[in-house]
Write a structure and sequence with these properties.
Blueprint (H helix, E strand, L loop, with lengths): L8 H12 L4 H7 L11 H16 L4 H12 L8 H14 L17 E4 L2 E7 L1 H19 L7 E4 L5 E2 L3 H8 L14 E9 L2 E7 H10 L12 E7 L2 E12 L2 E11 L2 E5 L4 H11 L4 H10 L5 E7 L3 E8 L2 E8 L9 E7 L2 E7 L3 H9 L3
Parallel strand pairs: 2-11
Antiparallel strand pairs: 1-10, 3-6, 4-5, 5-8, 6-7, 7-10, 8-9, 9-15, 12-13, 13-14, 14-15
C-alpha cells in the first residue's frame, strides 16, 4: 500500500501462500461451523451469530461484508456482543476517513497523503440514550455500505484463512514480527489453536457529497466536511496471530480465552485533510452531543490515537497499565451469572495486543504481563 513501506518477509510469505491457494468460499464457510457461539453466550447473541452466518452465505454481493465481515467472523471477533458497538463505530469512522487513527510516518508525504499508525488507544463512553438514538441509523448506514450505495470498495488483498503453527518461532516466521506467548495461564488451560492469518486490505473511494449525505442520514447536519471532491482511503490489516485456550467446564460451561497479536493496522487518506473535522463528525454520528464532540475532537490527536466508542449499557472500560504501557480494559455489562466477557487492549512496538475471555480482570492482566 502506498506510503506504508516494504512488506515484512513473514507477511510476504503469508500473502504468497494465499495467492497460490485461491479462496474457496465453501471451504471457508465450512470452517465457520466450528465458531458457533460459546456455551455461555446469551440467546440473542446466538441469534445474531446465525443471522450473520446466513448473510455471509447468502449475500456474496456485499463487498464490504465479504471482505471485512467474513474475515472478522473467521477470526472470532463477533463472539461477544460488546464488539458490535465498536464495529459499528469503526464502520462510521471508515466512511469518514479515520478508520484507524495512526501516527504520521513520513513527513515528506504529508503534503498530499495522511499516513497513520496506532500509538495510543483510548475509549469514549457513549450513554445508553445516545446509543439507542443512533444504533438503528448506524445499522442502516452499514447496509448502505454493503450494497455499495456509498461507493464500491476495491479488494487489494483478501483476508486469508488461519494457518496453524506449532510454536512461537513458526508463528513469528510467518507473521514477520516476534510473537509472544504467555508464561502464565490459569490452571487447567489447554492451548487449542495457534494460528496466523493475513488480514484484508481494501481501497475505498468516498465522494464528499455522499459522505455528507450519510452524515445527514445519521442526524448530523451541522458538520461540513472539507471541500474535496473525493476521499481515497486505503486500510490494511497486515497479519493477525491467535492463541486460543480452553479451561475445564465448570457446571457444564466451558470457558475460553484468546490472545491476539497483530501488526498495527495502517491506513492512508488522500488528499491531506483536517482529521479533527472527521473526528468530530464521527463522534456526532455515534451520538455525542455537538459541543462535547467538538471539545473531544480538538483534544484527541487523530493521527496517533485509535478511538473505541463504548456504549455504557453494553460495556464499561477503565485504563490499566501492562508492564508500564497504557491499556484499556473493556468489561461487558453482565446479563447473566458468572464472569462477564472482558477484553484487554494495548499497543507496543508496532504490535497491537488483545486478550479476551470470561476471566477476572486480574487474570487478564496476569496473562498480559507474562507474555514473553
Amino acid at each position: 500500500m502506498r506510503g506504508c513501506g516494504c512488506r515484512r518477509k513473514g507477511e510476504r510469505s503469508m500473502q504468497e501462500r494465499e495467492r497460490r491457494e485461491p479462496l474457496d468460499e465453501r471451504r471457508i464457510m465450512a470452517r465457520l461451523d466450528v465458531l458457533n457461539p460459546w456455551p455461555a453466550e446469551e440467546p440473542d447473541v446466538s441469534g445474531a451469530w446465525l443471522e450473520m452466518r446466513r448473510r455471509l452465505a447468502n449475500e456474496p454481493g456485499g463487498k464490504y461484508n465479504s471482505i471485512v465481515g467474513r474475515w472478522m467472523v473467521n477470526r472470532g471477533f463477533t463472539r461477544s456482543r460488546w464488539w458490535m458497538p465498536a464495529l459499528a463505530g469503526v464502520m462510521v469512522i471508515v466512511l469518514l476517513g479515520v478508520l484507524f487513527s495512526f501516527a504520521s510516518v513520513r513527513q515528506a508525504a504529508a503534503d498530499f497523503l495522511n499516513i497513520f499508525r496506532v500509538q495510543k488507544i483510548t475509549a469514549i463512553p457513549i450513554s445508553p440514550e445516545q446509543w439507542a438514538a443512533q444504533e438503528g441509523k448506524l445499522e442502516n448506514l452499514a447496509q448502505m455500505m454493503e450494497q455499495g450505495l456509498l461507493g464500491e470498495p476495491t479488494v487489494l488483498r483478501e483476508g486469508g484463512a488461519p494457518q496453524r503453527v506449532a510454536n512461537a518461532e513458526e508463528a513469528s516466521d510467518l507473521a514477520g514480527f516476534r510473537v509472544l506467548v504467555p508464561s502464565y495461564v490459569p490452571n487447567g488451560s489447554t492451548l487449542k489453536e495457534f494460528s496466523v492469518s493475513v488480514g484484508p486490505a481494501i481501497r475505498y473511494e468516498v465522494e464528499r457529497a455522499k459522505a455528507q449525505s450519510a452524515l445527514e442520514l445519521l442526524g448530523v447536519a451541522d458538520v461540513s466536511l472539507p471541500e474535496v471532491e473525493k476521499l481515497v482511503i486505503e486500510a490494511d490489516i497486515p497479519v493477525v496471530v491467535l492463541q486460543e485456550y480452553r479451561l475445564p467446564a465448570e457446571g457444564g460451561t466451558e470457558t475460553r480465552f484468546a490472545v491476539y497479536q497483530a501488526l498495527n493496522p495502517t491506513a492512508t487518506v488522500e488528499p491531506a485533510v483536517d482529521l479533527a473535522i472527521f473526528g468530530e463528525a464521527a463522534l456526532r454520528a455515534l451520538g455525542v452531543p455537538a459541543e462535547e464532540a467538538r471539545r473531544l475532537a480538538s483534544t484527541i490527536d487523530w493521527t496517533s490515537t485509535l478511538v473505541i466508542p463504548v456504549p455504557a449499557n453494553l460495556a464499561e472500560f477503565r485504563e490499566v497499565s501492562v508492564n508500564g504501557t497504557a491499556g484499556i480494559m473493556l468489561t461487558e455489562v453482565a446479563q447473566q451469572a458468572g464472569e462477564p466477557m472482558r477484553s484487554l487492549l494495548w499497543q507496543k512496538d508496532n504490535v497491537m495486543y488483545i486478550i479476551a475471555g470470561r476471566l477476572r480482570g486480574s487474570e487478564l492482566l496476569h496473562i498480559a504481563e507474562s507474555l514473553r
